[in-house]
Amino acid sequence: MTLLLDINGADDSWSPVRWQARFQAELPHVRVARAGSETYTADEVRYAAVWKPTPGLLAQLPNLKAIFNLGAGVDAVLADATLPDVPLVRVVNADLTRRMTEYVTLHVLLHHRRLPMMLAAQREKRWDAKDQWAARAVRVGLMGLGELGRDAADVLLRLGFRVSGWSRNAKTLAGVTTYSGAAGLDAFLGATDILVVLVPLTPATRGMLNRNLFGKLARDGVLGAPVLINAGRGGLQVEADILACLDDGTLGAASLDVFEKEPLPATSALWLHPRVIVTPHNAADSDADEIARAVATQIQWHDRGEPLLHVVDRSLGY
Ligand SMILES: NC(=O)c1ccc[n+]([C@@H]2O[C@H](COP(=O)([O-])OP(=O)(O)OC[C@H]3O[C@@H](n4cnc5c(N)ncnc54)[C@H](OP(=O)(O)O)[C@@H]3O)[C@@H](O)[C@H]2O)c1
To answer: How far is residue 204 CA from its own chain's centroid?
Structure first.
């Protein structure tokens, strides 16, 4: 039996060679092969572990039983029109979830406490004591109440923010005002000062962060203008609209971890915009050792006939 790794476009800690060593240590009785760098027999491949897989590669494996994506978002895998019809499993991991909650909390707090303005004042040696509001004066809207959105909601509630959330299906979450579906979107946006985006990139969500949506955010909040925090996927946002909305006051500020094109091109006006914070798609890195262990455990379960966890609904795209 072979586990095939096809890992592309990642940094050193995610190098395919390191993943191979991790998986080989977890699965000593399995042959772990790297696509493109060594020979393997396609018929012998039962499982694949992938990140941004090579289009068409997985379709060449006639006995493939499951595909494990090494991250939470599966949009890059589903972009392959030839993807074979076997279970696609994504990462759900407490370490990754906590890191995303750190990112969300950090960015909500820095906009709420006006840190960018204070850092600018410090550089000019200006003692500029701007008003600070109680967290309960600020409405944070979580777009996406999945694994990541729900955990962030817990921490934001504990800090005293007014928290709401929007999801595809209706949900009940203690302390959170919830909205769902297209019918609930406008009401959700109208009650949001800081919009935190944690939805997956799917055909239904692509490009939804646009001028039309930003124009529906609350305009009567203490921050003066709404704030966008996108840690979901770059394909959700229309960057030309973000820039135009920042410039005409529809948006007050933005924290962006993900971009239409990554790495963000040097020509992008987002880099130097005074009210934009750019982070390089590292809101929530995943601990590679933990992920390898979790995938190996699932492979062993599956071989014993037990069900896989965190299987993606391919018809919904997440
Ligand atoms: N920047 C980073 O470093 C980083 C790291 C990890 C993940 N991410 C991104 O974060 C995303 C969310 O991860 P997760 O683990 O929280 O995913 P998840 O558990 O699948 O949750 C997704 C949430 O989005 C909602 N949703 C999906 N499509 C929707 C639609 N059309 N309309 C309304 N709501 C919709 C879902 O609604 P239901 O609850 O009703 O299904 C769910 O609440 C990932 O897909 C990935 O793109 C980014």
So the answer is: 16
Map residue 166 onto helix, strand or coil: strand
Distance CA 229, CA 249 (A): 16
Q: At 219, which amino acid appears?
A: R
Please give the Cα distance from 160 to 178 (Å, whole number).
Answer: 17
Query: What's the average pLDDT block by block, 10 residues per block, for the chain (318 residues)?
Result: 93 87 97 93 98 97 98 97 98 96 98 96 94 96 98 98 98 98 98 98 98 98 98 98 98 98 97 98 92 97 97 97
Closest protein CA for atom 18 of ligand 1: 146
H or E element in which residue 227 lies? strand 227-230
| Residue (of 255, 241, 214) closest to 112 by Cα position | 255
Q: What is the pTM of this model?
A: 0.97
What is the C-alpha to C-alpha distance for residues 151 and 296, in angstroms, rounded to an integer? Answer: 26
Give the separation between CA 276 and CA 98, rounded to whole angstroms. Answer: 24
Q: Is the CB of 99 under 6 A from ligand 1?
A: no
| Residue reference for tokens 């014993």 | 304
Instruction: Examine the residue annotation and report whether 99 is marked as an active-site residue of this protein.
Output: no
Residue nearest to atom 11 of ligand 1 (CA): 200
In 27-161, the DSSP E strands lie at: 31-34, 45-51, 66-69, 88-89, 139-143
Taking alpha carbons only, the member of 77, 11, 4 closest to residue 288 is: 11
Extract the tokens encoding 180.
């769902």
- Cα angle 119-123-126, degrees, rounded to a multiple of 5: 85
What is the CA(73)–ligand 1 centre distance, in A? 8
* Token code pair at residue 96: 């990754």
Whether 255 is in the pocket of ligand 1, judged by its Cβ within 6 Å, is no
Query: Is the CB of residue 6 less than 8 Å from the CB of residue 57?
Result: yes
Question: Is 281 among the catalytic positions?
Answer: yes
